Amino acid sequence: MLDFNDVEKLIENFNNSDMRELEIDDGSFHIRLSKNDAPKAPVAYQSQVDAPAVAVSEPQAVNQVDESQADEGQTIKAPMVGTVYLKPEPDKEPYVKVGSRVHKGDIVCIIEAMKMMTEIKSDLDGVISEIVVENEDLVEFDQPLFKVTEG
């Protein structure tokens, strides 16, 4: 059973460790910790903990940003933390450009995390209206990558 002191100790140990991310979710307890402000490879750790439900929420300002982005069209977001590559190889053309038509399942970029390359596929149909990130940027989980408009 995890109490407040256990959570404090968990956070302290996390801050003193080399881990970049920690997420624990067993259905009744969920906590996500991240130190991804430095360009280091992320390390994720997941564990099952028998604990009462504890609510850990994002700051309200983050939710307000998400709402304003929703007004500007739909976005393709990063499903993971890592380095984004907009081209399959440095000397090749980008997967998509502003004005490119995408369909659900089309590859739009690659995210590298822990030496593994993951193809990121569009979950939307439409036209790329904006590329929000630069090639080789470090991206956070759920960070907008592309804005897509219907068309």
UniProtKB/TrEMBL annotation:
Keywords: Biotin, Fatty acid biosynthesis, Fatty acid metabolism, Lipid biosynthesis, Lipid metabolism. Residues 73-149 form the Lipoyl-binding domain. CDD domains: biotinyl_domain. SUPFAM superfamilies: Single hybrid motif (SSF51230). Pathway: Lipid metabolism; fatty acid biosynthesis. This is Biotin carboxyl carrier protein of acetyl-CoA carboxylase. It comes from Ligilactobacillus ruminis. It comes from the Bacteria. The keyword Transmembrane helix does not apply. This protein is a component of the acetyl coenzyme A carboxylase complex; first, biotin carboxylase catalyzes the carboxylation of the carrier protein and then the transcarboxylase transfers the carboxyl group to form malonyl-CoA. InterPro entries: AcCoA_biotinCC, Biotin_BS, Biotin_Carboxyl_Carrier/Decarb, Biotin_lipoyl, Single_hybrid_motif.
